[in-house]
Design brief:
The protein is α+β, with helices and mostly antiparallel strands. Helices cover 37% and strands 18% of the residues. The protein folds into 2 domains: 63-120 and 226-392, 3-Layer(aba) Sandwich (Beta-lactamase), CATH 3.40.710.10; 124-223, D-Ala-D-Ala carboxypeptidase C, peptidase S13 (D-tyrosyl-trna(Tyr) Deacylase, Chain: A), CATH 3.50.80.20. The chain contains 10 helices and 13 strands. The strands form 3 sheets. It has a 6-stranded mixed beta sheet with strand order 7-6-5-4-8-13, with helices on one face. α3 crosses α7 (239-248) and α3 runs parallel beside α9 (285-301). The longest helix is centred in the first third of the chain and has 44 residues, at 4-47. Residues 1-9 and 11-52 have low confidence and may be disordered.
Length: 417
């Protein structure tokens, strides 16, 4: 037997032991690092909200390649198209990147207005009459009109005029309106007072602006219900009405706080500068989709359909009147548009809403396009939405036989209380 053999075995065993002892701390360090990474991932998940969690299914539709094939830069577009339950994603691109949503902010304004005011809320215009008969001029007194109804106009003026004539009042000496009074979408109380006088056709009274009133309350003119007002606002994308409604629900800070506190959107991704969508706002496609889901739920809770507060594309008057006409989605989409000129973020075009389908239920979508090629981007939005939906579902028409009349005058009622 070779005498050196035991020595060699001892050396080999020693090397194994040394190597093992040296590896153990390294293994422990690796394990600690791995656990630390897992903890970081857990912390990140804890900070994220449900609205920011993507659906587990990866969409088969390659949205990035779709834009590239049309010589578009994918980074200037944000897209998310999902089923209502969020379990199936049909298309996605930059879904968690912030863009300027433009007038899509009005969807958040609509949601908070429904929550705070209710679908049946009505703006009121109070009308008082102070009788001061002047025999020489045949003027019969001073009329006070108070209210902040952003939709008040000719229909309301006709109701007041008819009521005054029924009381035997043919002429007025003065018409006094409050500072917040608006007529036919004018922000100027002076201009609104002048327009009111012309519509009343009760002589040529002078006008004045004052919040103090006198005389007897003779009539209250109630606006259409808030649901009708929101439909008009969203169909026409009326910044004027959005601003007036926003003033009742806390303005831009109130809307942002609601999105963060109630919908649990991540504050770093939400900037609301205006309730109408003008100027510098920021949201992600995923967060806008969360707003639409909440809007659907709130509408249902108050006995409304989404189409009661949002226009039907290619059917209702307004910014969607000719959108998707002649496509498979004609009459099957309820949505909101958004547009900003090149002065803000280089221009923005956006479209978001709901597609009604026979086999997938409600499909929600948000498409955000940055750039000043407004018409081109609108065309791309319609093409992308049509292609994605028809590849995955059968659209279901929800449009009525004839376009609806927005803010129907027949809904304006008076009260003597």
């Amino acid at each position: 037997m070779n005498r050196r053999q035991p020595v060699l075995w001892m050396i080999a065993v020693g090397l194994v032991i040394v190597s093992t002892l040296a590896y153990i701390p390294h293994h422990l360090r690796v394990g600690a690092v791995a656990e630390g990474a897992a903890a970081l991932v857990l912390d990140s998940d804890t900070l994220s909200t449900e609205s920011r969690k993507p659906a587990s299914e990866k969409p088969a539709f390659d949205t990035s390649q779709w834009y590239l094939s049309r010589n578009e830069s994918p980074e200037t577009h944000g897209v998310l198209i999902e089923t209502l339950d969020g379990k199936r994603t049909l298309a996605s691109l930059n879904a968690d990147v912030t863009f300027n949503p433009a007038s899509l902010v009005k969807l958040a304004t609509s949601l908070l207005a429904l929550r705070k005011l209710g679908a049946n809320y009505r703006f009121q215009t109070r009308v008082l009459f102070d009788e001061q008969i002047d025999v020489k001029s045949k003027s019969q007194g001073r009329l006070y009109v108070q209210g902040n109804d952003p939709t008040f106009g000719d229909a309301g003026a006709n109701l007041i005029g008819n009521e005054l004539r029924a009381r035997g009042i043919e002429r007025l000496s003065e018409v006094v309106v409050s500072q917040e009074f608006k007529f036919n979408f004018s922000n100027s109380p002076e201009e609104s007072a002048g327009r009111l006088v012309k519509a009343l056709k009760l002589g040529n009274p002078k006008t004045n602006i004052a919040d103090e009133t006198g005389g007897q309350l003779i009539v209250i003119v109630n606006s259409n219900p808030l649901s009708d007002v929101l439909l008009y606002m969203n169909a026409r994308s009326s910044n004027f009405i959005a601003d007036e409604i926003g003033a009742l629900i806390g303005g831009a800070p109130g809307v942002r706080q609601f999105l963060v506190d109630e919908l649990k959107l991540q504050g770093d991704f939400v900037t609301i500068a205006t309730v109408s969508g003008r100027e510098q706002n920021r949201m992600t496609a995923r967060d806008i989709l969360a707003v639409i889901r909440a809007l659907i739920e709130e509408a249902k809770r108050q006995g409304l359909e989404p189409s009661d507060i949002m226009p039907v594309a290619s059917d209702d008057a307004g910014t969607l009147r000719r959108r998707l006409a002649g496509t498979a989605l004609e009459g099957a989409v309820v949505a909101k548009t958004g547009t900003l000129t090149a002065e803000v973020d280089g221009g923005m075009t956006s479209l978001a809403g709901i597609v009604y389908t026979q086999d997938q239920g409600l499909v929600l979508f948000v498409i955000l396009d940055q750039g000043n090629r407004i018409a081109d981007n609108r065309q791309l939005e319609d093409e992308l939405l049509t292609e994605v939906i028809t590849a995955n579902a059968t659209p279901q028409v929800v449009a009525g036989p004839t376009p609806r009349r927005l803010l129907p005058a027949a809904s304006v009622v008076t009260s003597n209380k």
